[in-house]
Every structure is written in C-alpha cells, then in structure tokens.
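Hypothesis: this fold can be encoded by more than one sequence.
Test: take the structure tokens below, design a sequence, compare later.
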C-alpha cells in the first residue's frame, strides 16, 4: 500500500510538472487499446498537459478494464463533483486522485414581466456539462397558484440544450421587443403559453415535479408582486446576481436585483 501511495504521489508530481504527455494511461507506452476504444466521452478536461476524458459514472462502469489498464485516467462527472480517477491494475479498482465540487443544476437567471406579451425567462447553465432541456420544465402558478400542481397552473416543456456557461432565453412567441437572434425558444401561444404577471411564481422542476429553482412562493398570493430590491415583480424584471450559480428551491430575494419593466438589455448574457 505504501508503494502504491508513493506511485500515485509520483504521478501527481509528474502531472503538475507537465512531464507526462499522453491522452489516457500512465506507465505504458500506449493506452490500453481496449480501454481507449471503450471510452466514449463528448468532452475532456485539461490536467497537467493532458486532455482527460470526462465521463459519466455509467460510462466509467462500462469501460472494459483489465490488469493492463493500470494507469488509465478519466474524469468522472458525479452529481455534485468531478473526480480525477486512476485505474489500479493491482486491486482492479478505480482510485480517486482529486475531486472538485461543481454546480449540479440549471438556475433561473432572469425573469421579465414586460408590457403586453413581452414575457421572458432566462436559464443559465453554471455546470461543466451540456444539459438536455427535455429533462426539465417550467411551471407557472397563477396568482400564487395551487401547490402542488393544480388545475390553474401551467406546465411549459422545452426542447434544446444549454452548453456549459451559456444562457437560454425562453420567450412568449408574441413578444415584440427582443431580436430573434437572442431568443432560444419561443413558447407557442396555444395550450400553456408563457404568460405571467408579477404575482405568478415560476418554478424550474424536473419531470417528476421536484423543484430545482424558483421565482416567488408557490401557493402564496403576494398581491401585485413579490417585493425585491425596493420594487416588486409586477411590471418589472429581476436578474440573478452574477455571484449566484447554484439553484435554490426556496425563494430568496437577496439573490436577485430588480430592473425597470422593459429593460431587456441583459437577456442572453450573464
């Protein structure tokens, strides 16, 4: 075990000094060909001069490792952290070298109740992975609404994806103020349109209605709007502070700042 720890320590030193230049695998002339063929990563992370595949736990489990896979490196994208892991051919197991915490979900980064049909919701992906929007939805609670979901509430399903560090602007299809180049998804006017007032909470949830992020307090009618930053959400817009990158399933006004009703200048930026 002491020898193994010393070996891992030498690997880390080599990585920091940039003395190892291979895509995957250490202590081999070439990566194990079987492993190389089994790793199917859409992205990679640079570490110590190497581009290391970023995989899901399921992808890691499917790698056909053998004793000759010793030294194979992957980054594993867990729910709340990413870990650099090395395959130990002696114990036939993956060993974690380094882990870092990552944002695990999308956030609502802007909520605009403009005049007429000029309604917008902006999402932000603060994670390190592209997120498929077919796995989430918006729920609008009319006048505070019924909680859990009741007959007066609207569900908005979205298509598309958000790249890491990018925004996604959702608009009422009848809006007239923002260039089409800024909009990522137009919500049809039929069915459940993107139509809300300042007293209508908006929730970002998964498909099982688990709350990821929220604007307002579902089940509570605030009157005209939710007070924030000396104003309220009625005929105003609110923008998430740039320092906020994690979602919050509970409404917290300290994470937001208000701006005038028809200020659309920050849509699509973060």
């Amino acid at each position: 075990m002491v020898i193994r720890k010393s070996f891992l320590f030498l690997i880390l030193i080599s990585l920091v000094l940039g003395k190892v230049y291979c895509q995957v695998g250490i202590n081999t002339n070439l990566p194990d060909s079987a492993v190389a063929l089994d790793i199917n990563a859409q992205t990679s992370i640079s570490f110590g001069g190497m581009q290391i595949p970023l995989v899901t736990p399921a992808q890691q489990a499917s790698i056909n490792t053998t004793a000759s896979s010793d030294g194979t490196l992957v980054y594993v994208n867990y729910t709340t952290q990413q870990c650099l892991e090395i395959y130990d051919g002696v114990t036939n197991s993956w060993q974690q070298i380094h882990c870092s915490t990552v944002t695990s979900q999308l956030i609502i980064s802007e909520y605009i109740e403009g005049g007429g049909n000029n309604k917008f919701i902006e999402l932000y992906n603060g994670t390190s992975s592209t997120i498929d929007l077919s796995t989430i939805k918006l729920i609008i609670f009319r006048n505070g609404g019924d909680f859990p979901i009741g007959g007066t509430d609207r569900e908005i399903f979205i298509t598309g994806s958000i790249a890491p560090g990018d925004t996604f602007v959702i608009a009422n299809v009848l809006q007239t103020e923002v260039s089409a180049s800024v909009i990522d998804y137009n919500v049809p006017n039929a069915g459940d349109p993107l139509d809300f007032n300042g007293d209508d909470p908006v929730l970002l949830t998964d498909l099982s209605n688990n709350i990821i992020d929220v604007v307002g307090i579902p089940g509570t009618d605030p009157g005209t709007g939710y007070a924030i930053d000396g104003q309220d959400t009625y005929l105003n817009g609110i923008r998430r502070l740039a320092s906020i990158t994690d979602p919050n399933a509970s409404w917290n006004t300290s994470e937001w700042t208000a701006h005038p009703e028809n200020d659309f200048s920050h849509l699509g930026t973060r």
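Confidence is low (pLDDT under 50) at residues 1-42. The longest strand covers residues 93-101.
Hypothesis status: open.
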